[in-house]
Amino acid sequence: MIGLRSIDSFYVGGTDLTLAGLPVAERRMAAGAAPRRIDPNGACVTGQMYVQAYRQVAPRHPLPVLLWHGGGLTGACWETTPDGRPGWLMWFLEQGFDVLVSDAVERGRAGWSRWPEIYAEPPFFRTKNEAWEAFRIGPAGSWNDDPARRIAHAPMLFPTEAMDAFARQFVPRWADREAITMAAYAALLDRVGPCIVVAHSQGGGFAFEAAQIRPEAVRAVVALEPSGGPAAVSSAATRHLVLWGDRVWGHPEWSRYRSVADAHIGRIAAAGGIVRMIDLPEEGVAGNSHMLMMDRNSDALAARVLAWLAEIGVAGA
Amino acid sequence: MIGLRSIDSFYVGGTDLTLAGLPVAERRMAAGAAPRRIDPNGACVTGQMYVQAYRQVAPRHPLPVLLWHGGGLTGACWETTPDGRPGWLMWFLEQGFDVLVSDAVERGRAGWSRWPEIYAEPPFFRTKNEAWEAFRIGPAGSWNDDPARRIAHAPMLFPTEAMDAFARQFVPRWADREAITMAAYAALLDRVGPCIVVAHSQGGGFAFEAAQIRPEAVRAVVALEPSGGPAAVSSAATRHLVLWGDRVWGHPEWSRYRSVADAHIGRIAAAGGIVRMIDLPEEGVAGNSHMLMMDRNSDALAARVLAWLAEIGVAGA
């Protein structure tokens, strides 16, 4: 049972702008309807981020957990796993944390803006075959549109039978929005104050950066397979935990991302910061994909995270 | 306090397809990164809908409430109001209902698909000035980018000071997706079973249609200013409540939408169905905008809805 005081949502960040000079068109607003005059010019907003906040009646920990999704996904990735198990949102709520789930700029409920007028480029759409390989579920060339003929890595902890369900979560993404997204995360931290940031993949890179620009707010970063990191360290105040799944070093892209993250964590440690790396295959846990919070051992991994948060003193016992 | 057994999410609907023949491009995946080969071809899904389900430990009513948003918006419209008050999601949860909030096809966390390869046309982006006038917050021509210089209708129950906050909820929409969206709503009803559908604007049209194609599931429709309706009635089994705000008949578009809805409700009544219309200005309640669930009297309107649900026997006392 989760006793909630409130479920509320809000938007942070965003810049107001006014579009002018775009052609007015005659367009149908509904199938079968008569065309009507559509004027796309006028006032709009771009760069906002959506946040859904779950507040406990009696939180059992001093700091809220912020869940930041990765590229091409939304906050939905923290909810039910594709095979129908409770995800990390429920897990952290059941542990008594206040939890805030965001949809980053141009993802999900945050909305997105037109191109080329506001965004410079068109978006990217991730195919299932790309995700299958990029998320290290199966080797390159092992995808098949027929689920029965897909060959996953073995052992494999991602629920491969739910791959098509998982793909329903994919949303388009843009490549030129990093600064604007980071500004919205900074606005979120300014609003929330001291917190724990749990971030996946692209979100991990934003979390690393957030700990540099808002060290007083970000008391701990838990990065699940971060895909990027800042080039320099100005603060070592934030505690960092990084988790890595299986087959990272054998993957051209992930070995490069991991090197970037390792270098960043190394710089924080060298500056006297408190860091921890959990390399699951090194510990004998084989088969984790890039989607650690969806893998079959997702609850066990969440428990590892909580143990570390308690150890560094930002979660209750 | 809300005692929840679970918060889970799932996707319904959607069609798998495979894209082929699209040009492979060299594109930057992140600012400053080297261009890499991006192949957009492969397997994807289109037409899915996102649903977030809040289940009570001890529901006090026999049927769940489904909240269906309107055009250019997402499920976020049912959460906190733009001026920061609890919205209808919290209100119905506090009354003890299980509540399911959806993001319809191509909105919010449901994701959207590329055009012209999958969708035939580009989307529509609603400007603030269009919304100001179309949602009957201010008269035509009264918009100003400067909040201090906007002239709203008077009296006005929409929290006009939060208009710029409200616009952060706007998402693009397409005009040619109605059949696919309706199919996803039907899939949702097939999964959920007997329920109460509370729907706004474009969602109201989908709810009217849903009561025709799934009368055994949709026990009651509460339509807030529905913007459409089916051309014929085959079932009068579902109870219907329709709410209308102020200045509908004076507005060219809304008077037309209202005529369509009135005709539909009239056909249900003629077929022996149980219908109720609440015309707020006729009752002496002046100033409601199109955004009834965000207006300053949103709690009072929700209480009217609950009273009607109890009266027709689909909610507990």
Outline the structure in words.
Two copies of one chain form a homodimer. With 317 residues, chain A is of the alpha/beta class. The first copy, chain A, is built from seven helices and ten strands. The first copy, chain A, has helices spanning 88-94, 128-134, 163-167, 178-192, 202-213, 252-270, 298-311; strands spanning 2-19, 25-27, 36-38, 42-56, 65-68, 99-103, 195-200, 218-224, 239-244, 275-279. Chain A has an eight-stranded mixed beta sheet, sandwiched between helices. Chain A has a two-stranded antiparallel ribbon with strand order 2-3. In chain A, helix 5 (202-213) links the parallel strand 7 and strand 8 (218-224). The longest helix of chain A has 19 residues, at 252-270. The two termini of chain A are 19 Å apart. The mean pLDDT of chain A is 96. At the A-B interface, strand 1, strand 4, helix 1, helix 2 and helix 3 of A face strand 1, strand 4, helix 1, helix 2 and helix 3 of B. Strand 1 of chain A pairs antiparallel with strand 1 (2-19) of chain B.
